[in-house]
Amino acid sequence: MLLEVRNLNLFYGERHVLKDVSFHVDRGEVVCIVGESGSGKSSILYSILGLLPKDSKLSGSIRFMDKELINLPEGEYKRLRGRHISIVFQEPSLYLDPLFKVGPQIEEAYRAHFREGNPKEKALMALKNAGVQDAERVYNSYPHHLSGGLKQRVCIAIATVCGPDLVLADEPTTALDVSLQGRILKLFRDMKGEGRSVLLVTHDFGVVAEVADRVLVLKDGLIVEEGSVFDIFDNPKSPYTRELLEAI
Ligand SMILES: Nc1ncnc2c1ncn2[C@@H]1O[C@H](COP(=O)(O)OP(=O)(O)O)[C@@H](O)[C@H]1O
Ligand SMILES: [Mg+2]
Q1: Is there an atom of ligand 1 within 6 Å of 39 CB?
Q2: Each residue of 133-143: pLDDT tens digit?
Q3: Which of 71, 84, 109, 152 has the fewest Cβ atoms within 10 Å of its own Cβ atom?
């Protein structure tokens, strides 16, 4: 098991946002967390990455590659982030630095963890693996010269240049049109073949149908259903899942 989350409870001040959340992710698996806005999906990802605000209180257990992540010292977290766990956000423009060409931004992600190897080669390779055809041109572009779909692929290159074991993705295709969305989702499916795992947050069951091996349905911070993608679509047990499915 790559990631095992057990009885995760998260409070923002007095607010109980995650309630006894338990699930796991195996190697080579795409797991989707579905739920409406405000259900706590992003909070699960930030809990795993150790990126919660100061006034939050987290308890339970998050085991990743046999290491406990709750209360992991920041120095150890820095060695994990980008190298073993990385994240792709919904809005790539907020993540890329507008003042720098994207190539060096991918190289920087690589250099943060590796001294050996040729960073430019790695960056170009990461772009190609992320489905960018003219990698050299994109490498030399500023973010504002690129379409939304290309920017998101640059973010995927940044998230994968170090060959992480687990990629967290927070509604990564919400801002893209449907055909681009399909291409990005295919990239996540392809990662499975390399033994990588993806934990993908979405509110869209169409996305789930395209990529998920397993699905967790989250409502008000509680997991109300968990199953294979077939179970969830063919035989949803929770009334809430049925409601969400009827909405599409
Ligand atoms: N930094 C924060 N401080 C206080 N409350 C927050 C913070 N971030 C999120 N919340 C609240 O926690 C709940 C879960 O948020 P979030 O994890 O972002 O949900 P989702 O990603 O499913 O939309 C929401 O009610 C949100 O308003
Ligand atoms: Mg969110």
Answers
A1: yes
A2: 999 999 999 99
A3: 71
| Cα separation, 236 vs 245, whole angstroms | 9
Residue ranges of domains in the chain:
1-84+166-180+197-248, 91-163
Specify whether the CB–CB gap between 211 and 32 falls below 8 A: yes
202 close to ligand 1 (CB < 6 Angstrom): no
How many whole angstroms separate alpha carbon 2 and alpha carbon 196?
10
Q: Report the length, in residues, of the chain.
A: 248
192 φ, ψ (degrees, to nearest 5): -60, -40
Share of the chain above pLDDT 70, in %: 100
**Dist CA 54 CA 112 (whole Å):** 25
DSSP 8-state assignment for residue 24: E
Per the confidence metrics, is the pTM higher than 0.85? yes
Residue 67's CB is within 10 A of a number of other CB atoms, namely 11
CB-CB contact of 34 with 1 (8 Å)? no
| Architecture field, domain 1-84+166-180+197-248 | 3-Layer(aba) Sandwich (3.40)
Separate counts of helices (H) and strands (E) for the chain: 10, 10
Q: Are 86 and 167 in contact (CB under 8 A)?
A: yes
Ligand nearest to the CA of 35: 1
CA 53 to ligand 1: nearest atom: 1
Q: Quick: pLDDT tens for 15-31.
A: 999 999 999 999 999 99
